[in-house]
C-alpha cells in the first residue's frame, strides 16, 4: 500500500511541499503520496488524529501549528527541543516522533549549496520569533566566531539568547553600528510586510552573504544588501527544499538530490 504523508497548516494551499516531496519520491523510487491538509485553527490535534487513524505515516507542519505540534509529539529530537517547535512528525507503532529540520535545512543550504563554511565566521541573525529560534542551535553547532541576535524588541532577543547560553549575543539594531559580518540572515517577518529591519549601513564584510529566509519575490532586505555591496544575496528557497529533504530522510531513510529540485522550482 502507498504510504501517505501531508503538510498540515492554515492556510496551506500555497505550500510547495507537495511538489517537492513528489519530486523526491519520483527520484528515489519511493512508493508514497503527499497531500495538503487544511486544519481548522482550533482543530489541529483532531486533524492529526484523523490522519493517523487513516494510516498516515508522517506530516510536515507549517504556520500556525508548529508550537501545537511540539505539544502533540510524545517523543522529540534534541533539535526540536532546542527549537521549541516542530515541523516534522513521524508516526509508527512506537508513537509520535517530532523533529525540527528548519535549522539543518538552513545550514545545509548555506554550507553546501552556497558554499559558505560557517566555522569562525561572524553571523548576524535578525528576528527573535519562532523562525529565528528554529535555526539558532544548528548555527551554533557550526562554531561561528560570533552569533549576534538583533531584534527591535531587545528583551525578546535577550530571552531567546539566554536559552542557548554561550556563543550568542542579543543586540539592538542601533548597537550594530560599526560592526561587520560575513553572513546576515533575515529571520524576521518584515519581508512579508514589504519592510526592511532598521539596519545601519556598512555591516557587510567584502565577501559577505545576505540571506533572507523568505522566498518568492526579491525582498527589501535583499535589495538593501545588493546596494550595500554584498558578494552574494540569496532567498530562502534552498532552505525550503533542504528542510524538506531532512524530513524525507527521517521518514524514508533515503537522501534525495536537492539541487535538481531547487533548479526545478527556480525555473517554475
Ligand atoms: P515568526 O514565527 O515568523 O518568527 P513572529 O514570532 O511573529 O514570527 O516574529 C516576528 C519577528 O519579526 C520578530 O522578531 C519581530 O520583531 P519584534 O519582536 O521586535 O516585533 C520581527 N519583525 C517583524 N516586522 C519587523 C520589521 N519591520 N522590522 C524588524 N523586525 C521585524
Q: Can you put this structure into words, describing what you see?
A:
The protein has 2 domains: 3-100 and 239-267, Rossmann fold; 103-235, 3-Layer(aba) Sandwich (Rossmann fold). The chain is 39% helix and 23% strand. It has 10 helices and 12 strands. It has helices spanning 17-28, 44-53, 66-72, 78-83, 102-113, 130-141, 154-164, 220-227, 237-252, 258-267, and strands spanning 3-9, 32-38, 58-61, 75-76, 88-92, 95-99, 122-126, 146-150, 168-171, 181-186, 204-212, 232-234. Helix 5 (102-113) crosses helix 9 (237-252). The model has no long low-confidence stretch (mean pLDDT 97). The site of 2'-monophosphoadenosine-5'-diphosphate has 15 residues, from helix 6.
List keywords for this structure.
binds 2'-monophosphoadenosine-5'-diphosphate, alpha/beta, 268 residues, 10 helices, Rossmann fold, 23% strand, six-stranded parallel sheet, globular, 2 domains, six-stranded mixed sheet, 39% helix
Layout of helices and strands, plus pairs?
Elements: E1 3-9, H1 17-28, E2 32-38, H2 44-53, E3 58-61, H3 66-72, E4 75-76, H4 78-83, E5 88-92, E6 95-99, H5 102-113, E7 122-126, H6 130-141, E8 146-150, H7 154-164, E9 168-171, E10 181-186, E11 204-212, H8 220-227, E12 232-234, H9 237-252, H10 258-267
Parallel strand pairs: 1-2, 1-3, 4-6, 7-8, 7-10, 8-9, 10-11, 11-12
Antiparallel strand pairs: 3-5, 5-6
The structure holds 2'-monophosphoadenosine-5'-diphosphate.
Amino acid at each position: 500500500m502507498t504510504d501517505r504523508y501531508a503538510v498540515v497548516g492554515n492556510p496551506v494551499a500555497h505550500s510547495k511541499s507537495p511538489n517537492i516531496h513528489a519530486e523526491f519520491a519520483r527520484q528515489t523510487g519511493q512508493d508514497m503520496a503527499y497531500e495538503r491538509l487544511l486544519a481548522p485553527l482550533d482543530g489541529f490535534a483532531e486533524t492529526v488524529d484523523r490522519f493517523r487513524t487513516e494510516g498516515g505515516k508522517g506530516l510536515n507542519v507549517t504556520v500556525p501549528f508548529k508550537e501545537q505540534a511540539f505539544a502533540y509529539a510524545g517523543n522529540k529530537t534534541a533539535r526540536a527541543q532546542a527549537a521549541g517547535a516542530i515541523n516534522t512528525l513521524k508516526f509508527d507503532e512506537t508513537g509520535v516522533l517530532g523533529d525540527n529540520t528548519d535549522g539543518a535545512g538552513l545550514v545545509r543550504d548555506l554550507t553546501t549549496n552556497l558554499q559558505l563554511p560557517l566555522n569562525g565566521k561572524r553571523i548576524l541573525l535578525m528576528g527573535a520569533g519562532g523562525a529565528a529560534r528554529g535555526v539558532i542551535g544548528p548555527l551554533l553547532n557550526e562554531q561561528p566566531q560570533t552569533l549576534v541576535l538583533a531584534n527591535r524588541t531587545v528583551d525578546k532577543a535577550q530571552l531567546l539568547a539566554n536559552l542557548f547560553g554561550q556563543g550568542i549575543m542579543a543586540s539592538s539594531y542601533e548597537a550594530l553600528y560599526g560592526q561587520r559580518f560575513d553572513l546576515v540572515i533575515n529571520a524576521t517577518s518584515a519581508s512579508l510586510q514589504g519592510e526592511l529591519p532598521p539596519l545601519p549601513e556598512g555591516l557587510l564584510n567584502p565577501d559577505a552573504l545576505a540571506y533572507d529566509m523568505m522566498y518568492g519575490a526579491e525582498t527589501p532586505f535583499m535589495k538593501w544588501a545588493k546596494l550595500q555591496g554584498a558578494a552574494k544575496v540569496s532567498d530562502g528557497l534552498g532552505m525550503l527544499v533542504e528542510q524538506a529533504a531532512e524530513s524525507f530522510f527521517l521518514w524514508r531513510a533515503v537522501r534525495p538530490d536537492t539541487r535538481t529540485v531547487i533548479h526545478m522550482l527556480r525555473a517554475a
